[in-house]
Amino acid sequence: MSEHSVPLERQKWMYETMVKIRHYEETMVQVYTEGKTPVFNIGAGTVPGEMHLASGQEPAAVGICAHLTPEDTVTAPHRPHHIAIAKGVHLDRMTAEIFGKVSGLGKGKGGHMHLFDPGVKFSCSGIVGAGIPQAAGAALACKMKKQNQVAVAFAGEGAANSGAFHEALNLAALWKLPLILVIEDNRYGISVPKEVSTAVKSNAVRGSAYDIPGYHVEENDPLEMYRVSEEAVDRARKGKGPCLIEIETYRLLGHFQGDPELYREKDEVAGLKEKDPIMRLRQHLLNQGVQSNVLDTMETRVRQAVDQAYDFARDSEYPDAEAALEDVFAPSIQ
Amino acid sequence: MSEHSVPLERQKWMYETMVKIRHYEETMVQVYTEGKTPVFNIGAGTVPGEMHLASGQEPAAVGICAHLTPEDTVTAPHRPHHIAIAKGVHLDRMTAEIFGKVSGLGKGKGGHMHLFDPGVKFSCSGIVGAGIPQAAGAALACKMKKQNQVAVAFAGEGAANSGAFHEALNLAALWKLPLILVIEDNRYGISVPKEVSTAVKSNAVRGSAYDIPGYHVEENDPLEMYRVSEEAVDRARKGKGPCLIEIETYRLLGHFQGDPELYREKDEVAGLKEKDPIMRLRQHLLNQGVQSNVLDTMETRVRQAVDQAYDFARDSEYPDAEAALEDVFAPSIQ
Amino acid sequence: MVTTKDRVLTGNKALSEAIAQEMERDSRVFLLGEDVGKYGGIFGSAEKLLDRFGAERVMDTPISETGFIGAAIGAATEGMRPIAELMFVDFFGVCMDQIYNHMAKIHYMSGGAVKVPMVLMTAVGGGYNDAAQHSQTLYATFAHLPGMKVVAPSTPYDIKGMMISAIQDDNPVVFMFHKSLQGLGWMTPIDASQGVVPEDPYTVPLGKAKVVREGRDLTIVGIQMMTHHALEAADRLAKDGIEAEVIDLRSLVPLDRETIIRSVKKTHRLLVVDEDYRSCGMTSEIAATVAEEALYDLESPVRRLAVPDVPIPYSRPLENRVIPGVESIEKAVQTMMKEV
Amino acid sequence: MVTTKDRVLTGNKALSEAIAQEMERDSRVFLLGEDVGKYGGIFGSAEKLLDRFGAERVMDTPISETGFIGAAIGAATEGMRPIAELMFVDFFGVCMDQIYNHMAKIHYMSGGAVKVPMVLMTAVGGGYNDAAQHSQTLYATFAHLPGMKVVAPSTPYDIKGMMISAIQDDNPVVFMFHKSLQGLGWMTPIDASQGVVPEDPYTVPLGKAKVVREGRDLTIVGIQMMTHHALEAADRLAKDGIEAEVIDLRSLVPLDRETIIRSVKKTHRLLVVDEDYRSCGMTSEIAATVAEEALYDLESPVRRLAVPDVPIPYSRPLENRVIPGVESIEKAVQTMMKEV
Ligand SMILES: Cc1ncc(C[n+]2csc(CCOP(=O)(O)OP(=O)(O)O)c2C)c(N)n1
Ligand SMILES: Cc1ncc(C[n+]2csc(CCOP(=O)(O)OP(=O)(O)O)c2C)c(N)n1
Ligand SMILES: [Mg+2]
Ligand SMILES: [Mg+2]
């Protein structure tokens, strides 16, 4: 892991945030099974519906969000929690949304794939690729408003084969939009390995189809992600246009909870766990002289925040059934 | 104009076919105005509806179709006549279709943008980009049938910014399909110049996004198109996979007939006419010692074929109105 | 009555004037789409806007409908008020995901926290032999899916007023203009494509149908071109003593069921005329509404005229066969009046 | 009566068996889609097919629906007989152009010269809290547009028989299977997802509705899950002396209007229940058909139950509110029987 130029404070923030994300996702693994045992039933329990967790993919989220402000826009795909947390989405209301509670970000209407927090300009959606043009539009708005905000779209490596990817990148390049596309290459789109879906090894080469830089981050390295993102965000803020970053990352869990994962060898995940980026960054911080009790304090703090969010969600009320008919249209007058 | 290795017979065929296409399109310019003067009304006259002509773009069509057999598939876009003629579509029935007659390829149901001649595996459509995945599917069928046919998709440079382009090329590259994508860069998508629509100068570079060759043919050169296509078709037939060819070509007429062409300078077309590829190839043939009366005879022959096609169309009957309700579904049993 | 002081505009000029006035008023409004710049929109929706507002607010786009409509959504959620033009409604299939899963649902999915104030403007309609992929109206394709307002005005006056309302609306509005009603120099000139349009900005509410001809014998509901055909048929029928009430639907979503039901309760007969496909179309919805809410007021079965579930054929006699016209309306009414 | 000799299969096994048998019979049949290989289809439609037929005929695709559905069309016009899986019908918006402008229209536009013998198979339905972009049925979105057959079977027997018919049909067929009726191990187990399925190949005709319960008091038309809810409601209503006739629609295009009308002429009352959106939906089309063709047979207004034109919300009480269920059907019937 190279270390050039990542300020210690940022490293600590990344570490803390990755721990927070991991604890969030691991808690969700548990919560999601509530009411689904002994027989797994996707529609039952505390949290029903599909659940796409991102344990292992923390570096993609923290490495770039470290450079963003609440005024920068982020769109995320169906696997959104790590990105939402790194972007600073309201954790209590996000969790309540996932629980389907009225105190949730979307009053329970959106759910885990549809988290909207306009306070920090975060959104996500369940349609692969769809967030990329929308982020381009947010970047266009930044440009039109002549502010120096940027927009970041996250997408999986599978999404890089969707038409939306191509159309949005061409637009962004053409209009020199402050857009950064982060491709989280976790090797799979559900069960389909990258080499079965993608004609090129690295999507970074696809930058040349739009005459924009394509960066490649190896080995799920949060510090390298930080450095590359710094350049990418800086370019975008300065009006130098879009770029794409592909990061090699790892999905420690199934595509969704309940995935039998028959498409990968059992020991693949064991191998990935040995390379856990959180452990690696922790070791790296210790190597730099950070005291382990400092890290422990951080861990305790974020664990508490996560646990509190789950408590908040649990203690909240379900929406009234009739609320289903509201919010189709906003009051018309602007 | 370089000349290496194009057999004279093929040069003559290209010349003859280009003359045929040009005469076809110039006749259509006239026929299309029938019933539309003094006031132009798109829905009136002998041939109603939109009319996209390809005068000037002959080299793209003949340069590659010179390498194809009736068993190879071609899909064309909304500007299809030159390609159809080069592919050997039944000219009488094609013209009758454009006239809306019952003797037409589609019994008058399709029209100028929807010409289907399964006899020579030609089809076209009015939706930009849509033919590319379909050609990939035809190429897939060739591969599955273990025959050495290929499929060629034609598209405008504007279409190279559509999602269909990206998805189809990735598929074709991944599956090593015998697909050749020909991009006719006529500088405009309707009124929008290439530099306003496309983030790269040449779409040839986009081949690298799929790890396939991208060829670039300059200056609307039919012989160069022939040579590049030879390599492309040969690769495809040998199972070496897809490629894309972009040819710089020129649209001598408006996007459609009736286009006021306010988006380009008047003298642009005059300049293009001076570089007319048909004149250039004629001169080239004369330089190689072909007698001008040989060329004259060819010209007369194809002019007659074209005129006959228009006569056929004119003399044919309109379909019975009730036929509109037929052909929605084929008889169900295969 | 048109006085000499009244300004007569074509549909397209009413439309581009509405956009210009809103762009003038509100710097957040901008326009993007294919050929909206120098060309001014293939159907004249953006006439002269580039000259007036420049290329930053009147943006030609690549042929990337998912890309630029998606971008409009992203810009709208960031507080801009984009108008995106989908050149022909027939092309919806390359970008429908952005339209129906995002533009239309973000407000709901966010529990009302995010607004998507944008207009998706698109040309609809046939009648000039542009065949199966360039002649559709697809009204019901949009009206079936929740979360977007869908309007289809039929006069220059309503075009201007409803476009201004659409731009000012905080919701996504699909604004369908009919090619034949744009009054373009290269289409069949028809009276209906011209009309009196006040110069000052004004709004016409979205969601209200309009009785455009009073009558006692039956109700004809029309949409856009079909309203004009219905009016002409009504004039002919009046000579036979049949007085048709004609309703111009104007808005598909919200649907003004009250106006329709009120009329049917008066006339006791209903014919719905639609340029869209018949099955699961606006004719179905309106007929069903009446069967639910005014069944006992009907004195004869509901009748529907629409494209008979075939793609739009190219050849003139074939297209004429499938798109309802004055004649087919007249005939349908005559038959209905004999039914009891 | 199920005898010990009868084989009971889940919906997904009936479906994958149909595909396997057709692939066995006809070497032109192949399958492509996301996760149809090792995974066997997210909803089990392709269970064990990869092992049996290999990766050349059971092809995992990239997430490129326009690409691979377009490719299926191209292969079909070249004489292959592809089955393409669109994982969730909700994703139609990224590929609808290929589906409705090409797959569905090529036969017509070519004047019958080109055939497009393919199946577009897709999962529909909600009820397990998968929210606005993964819970729709969108029946009418497809049924509105001409040129494709659209079927929605509700029993394992019909799933197998109709899939075999669909594959053998020379037309494009949109085959919608309902997730809850696949009998998957990770969904709520319901009786309706299992049924007797003969091992030998057989066909069930496309385009025929089926009376699945006879009754004299009213007709309930259901589609897929809604048919099962209607049957359960009918059993409950029978205890109150109300005998509902229940029709399983099975095929949306062609629509079997005769079976519906025949039933309404007998029962004189109609309730249509649909898991799709209400406006311009199948409920509209069926209600309109009856208002046209059996108006005088109706003894009370037609009633429709469907998703009330809102996106499908995530939270359990909200989703339950908008998707019709046994209770809401029962209540609607009780109200109807009091109406005259
Ligand atoms: C347009 C579309 N097609 C298919 C799907 C179903 N789907 C959901 S996630 C997914 C895989 C996505 O893979 P990738 O982009 O690599 O993201 P990852 O799940 O690996 O994070 C698929 C196919 C979808 N949601 N949207
Ligand atoms: C999906 C789609 N979007 C827009 C159009 C409208 N349209 C027809 S042709 C055309 C321009 C095409 O440009 P190009 O691909 O360069 O082909 P050319 O017309 O120059 O031959 C456009 C925008 C369409 N037919 N389909
Ligand atoms: Mg992935
Ligand atoms: Mg062009």
TrEMBL record, chains A, B:
It comes from Melghirimyces profundicolus. GO terms for biological process: pyruvate decarboxylation to acetyl-CoA. One of its GO terms (molecular function) is pyruvate dehydrogenase (acetyl-transferring) activity. Keywords: Oxidoreductase, Pyruvate, Thiamine pyrophosphate. Signal peptide: none annotated. The keyword Repeat does not apply. The keyword Oxidoreductase applies. Residues 48-321 form the Dehydrogenase E1 component domain. Its cofactor is thiamine diphosphate. This is Pyruvate dehydrogenase E1 component alpha subunit.
From TrEMBL, chains C, D:
Coiled coil: none annotated. GO terms for molecular function: oxidoreductase activity. Its cofactor is thiamine diphosphate. Keywords: Oxidoreductase, Pyruvate, Thiamine pyrophosphate. Residues 9-184 form the Transketolase-like pyrimidine-binding domain. SUPFAM superfamilies: Thiamin diphosphate-binding fold (THDP-binding), TK C-terminal domain-like. It holds the Pfam family Transketolase_C. The keyword Oxidoreductase applies. NCBIfam families: PRK09212.1 (NF006667). This is Pyruvate dehydrogenase E1 component beta subunit.
